[in-house]
Amino acid sequence: MDTIEQSLDVLLKRQENTSGNIANVNTTGYQAKQLFQSTLKEVQFVNHQGGSTVSEEQNIGGFTFGNAIDGSYIDSSKGTMNETGRATDFAVNSDGYFTIRMNDGTLAYTRNGNFKLNDQNQYVTQEGYQVVGANGQAVSASDNPDFRIVNIADEQQLTDAGNGYYTTNQNVQIDANPNVMQGYLEQSNVSMSDEMVTLMQTGREFEANQKVLSSTNETLDKAVNSLGKV
């Protein structure tokens, strides 16, 4: 029962992650999140029924209770570039990220260049966060806006802050010559075909575990209600 419960917990987390990726298939600049799992360490079982007096400890073997989600990583592969023709849309045609100043003053990073202009004619995100320029200040609308594009050495250390924003404690490197395309947006890198295959595989594994659970329940029922009477 513990093994089945462990397996169902893993499948539930996988299903939630896949559903989240599918829900963001049309989210500009979204980077798919993937999970990886590992096998739990083998546990040694013993009893105290050994020896002539049936009191000595004896090893009856090991058992592995299944798998567990060991962590997650961000798929940093680039999405396709979609031409919009809008002057406030931008896409980084390299490995860099736009720098965003959140409302609390902290810096976040995103591949989503779907910006707009505020009352001061400065670029802001759709949520109203300030887009940071190469000089560390707000970026005003111009023919050649100078965005602060950064490269992140270890993208797997990024923390997902939601809505396509990421934070990190590691040092970032400012790209001195970023390749930014105006009038374009980077699409989500989610592969619908891959996610649907994963979803179907997870569903089949759910069904297999449900059958095992049903069979185990019937065995326990007989043990309690039939063997108990004997």
UniProtKB/TrEMBL annotation:
Domain Flagellar hook protein FlgE/F/G-like D1: 91-133
Gene Ontology terms: cellular component: bacterial-type flagellum basal body
Subcellular location per the Swiss-Prot or TrEMBL entry: Bacterial flagellum basal body
Alphabetical keyword list: Bacterial flagellum, Cell projection, Cilium, Flagellum
One Gene Ontology term from the biological process aspect of the record: bacterial-type flagellum-dependent swarming motility
Keyword Zinc: no
Zinc found in the keyword field: no
Domain Flagellar basal-body/hook protein C-terminal residue range list: 181-225
Domain Flagellar basal body rod protein N-terminal, residue spans: 13-31
Matching InterPro entries: Flag_bb_rod_N (IPR001444), Flagellar_FlgE/F/G (IPR020013), Flg_bb/hook_C_dom (IPR010930), FlgE/F/G-like (IPR037925), LlgE_F_G-like_D1 (IPR053967)
Family, per entry: Belongs to the flagella basal body rod proteins family.
NCBIfam families for the chain: FlgEFG_subfam
Protein name: Flagellar basal-body rod protein
Organism for this UniProt entry: Liquorilactobacillus mali KCTC 3596 = DSM 20444
